[in-house]
Amino acid sequence: MNRVAQPILLVVTAGALLLAPFYLSAYGLTLLGRVLALSIAAIGICVVWGRGGILSLGQGLFFGLGGYSLAMHLKLAATPKGELPDFMVYNGVEALPWFWVPFVNGPFALAMVVILPTLAAAAVAWLMFRRRITGVYISIITQALVLAFVTWLNGSQGLTSGTNGITDFHTLLGIDLRGEHIARNLYWCTLMVLGAALLSTAWLLRTHFGTLLTAIRDNENRVRFLGYHPAAYKIAAFALGGLLSGLSGALYTLHLGTISPAMIGVTFSIELVIWVALGGRNSLLGAVGGLVLGQLAKDKISSAVPDAWLYLMGTLFVVVVLVLPQGVAGLLERRKPAAPRRKTLGEVSDVVSP
Amino acid sequence: MDSVFLFGQLFTGLSVASLLLLTALGLALSFGLMRVINMAHGEFLMVGGYLTFLAAQAVGPGFLWLAFPLAFVGTALLGALLEATVIRRLYGRPLDTLLATWGISLILQQAARQIFGSTGVPVTAPPWLNGAVTIHGGPLDSLTFPYVRLFVIVLALVVLGGMWWLLNRTRFGMHVRAVNQNREVASILGVNTRRLDLLVFALGAGIAGIAGVGLAMLSPVNPTVGAAYIVNAFLVVVVGGVGSVLGAGAAALLLGFVTALAEGLTSSSLAQATLLILVVVFLQWKPRGLIPTQSRALEEG
Question: Looking at the domain that runs over B3-285, which CATH code has it been given?
């Protein structure tokens, strides 16, 4: 895309999004808001995977931590004082479990939305990168972690409401969530968080940190030999990815009014990644755009022809990876004629033919 | 926990480990050889299960003679097709392969859902597998070992033995080990690595198909059965050490037993969650798995 068209398109898109509440139907607005909330997680994936080269298939874990942190508070706020949340009563739980107790406090819960996923991501990353676990191992481990989390949630009916998830929210910090203009305000709120996340991440990736992250992706050992400590940078990037996922999860919970293990599981986590891949893993706007358009298409197609949707998505996975490894954003980027360069020994070995 | 219950759990764990091992063998092979993560591998298991169901429909109770070759050849062909059309183009890009094969697994699952329905199709084990060995007297009085589970364990042992023989006693196996150690040098010395990749991938898929036969006799086959096994099978590969058949065997046993014991102590879901966490902790101690492949390379794919 050329230099003039890009900023114009960007401004038009931003304007259209900002004014969406005035021309979209109620359903369209909630759908768009929900998808925009999800796309915050896509920014995290773009940082962690596109820039850092770390493919995490467990973003659902951090998404879920953010979502559940908020949902627990909302549930407690919707429960009359001195009583237990309804699902605990059904399951014969007699006292509020210890990890629910502090979530009575609204500001604490809101802080946890950010802190809990960040800390969890940092801890997971510390465990992995400290031992120089790389590549597909990370994908498998993160996937195992999200599976463990979901399995635990499903199994602990009395503590987390199990497969049903937490639902039926009334107020957040005194704001009635079923009020008149709540959909519109929530939408703008989401858009604001998304914009802030986009801008600050874009800035961060332009700093020394971003450059080093890309360098680590391309050759971790070389960066290490230059005297840097790659693990520290990777942990920071992963924690940032966790934070963005957590934020996204909390906003998504607000939009949908519920959160359940099925929403954050293995399939969800991998789906996030594929939309980012479709849009362009290296480009923030590509990642966000890919996720937004992908989810909107999913909503339309899966309700129109439910059976065909999985075929379509499966085919899309394959085609994107085979044909568009850099996503649509990579396709739009104006191609500079690549200077012919000599292949290194390592590359030659990849193309050995029989 | 009394000893009868304990041994019963261990026995169940052993049979689960056997299926896990059969699933993981193919993964360990293709991951070790090509550094390819095949997320559709669980669907080979599923296809094997459905082929068993079809065999049982076609010839009645004595279907096993048909089911094994059908499941093996059918899934091996499917594997070969997948390798030739998709995976071959993605060598050197393991993370991309992961995504592409996940897409393929979605397609296969949906296809299964449309052909066989989303509820499981039952396969009745042949009459000679109905029944159980029961211990009478002694400290383990009335402990029972169902024949079907014994059969699955024997099946895994036979396949494991066959694989060991194939890898260590045949020319093909020598080539596989050579490529595993150093692809370039093996290729220079005249090993047709492309053909070998195809064969190994198909073989791994075929073994998963055989696992599908065992699976079909233990529980009904449904479209998500592969997805249920895949994460654990990957953990087996990771814990065992990439590309090590022996390591995969040991890891499958370990995971099977730990799950069975934990299930005995707590609930099933908590056991599963604990197991997954334990694996992550284990990798802190041995990041390259139980039996790592020795290499002097600085970077491993």
Answer: 1.10.3470
Whether A285 maps to a domain, the answer reads: no
**Average pLDDT for B270-292:** 78
Helices (H), chain A: 5-18, 20-23, 26-45, 59-78, 86-90, 106-130, 136-155, 157-160, 182-206, 208-218, 220-225, 230-256, 261-264, 266-279, 284-304, 306-323, 327-332, 345-348
User: How high is the pLDDT of residue A132?
Assistant: 79
Taking residues B53-63, what's their average pLDDT? 84
Whether A140 sits inside 8 A of B105 (CB atoms) is: no
> Which candidate, B86, B98, B90, places its Cα nearest to that of B27?
B98
Tell if the CB–CB gap between A274 and B102 is shorter than 8 Å: yes
Is A305 an interface residue toward B (CB < 8 Å)?
A: no
- Domains contained in chain A, number: 1
Q: What is the mean pLDDT of residues A345-350?
A: 47
Closest-CA distance of chain A to residue B237, Å: 10
Total length of chain A? 354
What tokens does B72 get?
A: 């093996």
Work out the pLDDT band at A353, boundaries 50, 70, 90: very low
Give Cα B4 to chain centroid, integer Å.
28
Mean per-residue pLDDT for A98-122? 87
- Which of B93, B95, B197, B300 is most worth mutating to test chain A (most A CB atoms within 10 A of its CB)? B95
Interface contact A147-B231, CB threshold 8 A: yes
**Could you tell me the residue ranges of all domains in chain B?**
3-285
Q: With respect to residue A21, please indicate whether it lies within any of the assigned structural domains.
A: no
- The boundaries of the domain holding residue A80 are 40-271
Q: How confident is the model at residue B111 (pLDDT cuts 50, 70, 90)?
A: very high
Q: For residue A322, tell me if it sits in a domain.
A: no
* Partner residue opposite A152 with nearest CB, options B90, B110, B273: B273
- Compute the nearest-CA separation of B217 from chain A (Å): 25
Q: B237: pLDDT confidence band, cut at 50, 70 and 90?
A: confident
Percent of chain B with pLDDT over 70: 93
Task: Judge if pTM exceeds 0.80.
Answer: yes
Tell me whether B295 touches chain A (CB under 8 Å). no
- Say how far residue B37 (Cα) sits from the centre of its chain: 14
**Residue B99: what pLDDT?**
83
Query: Which residues in chain A have Cβ-Cβ distances shorter than 8 Å to B300?
Result: 134
Residue A165 counted as domain residue: yes
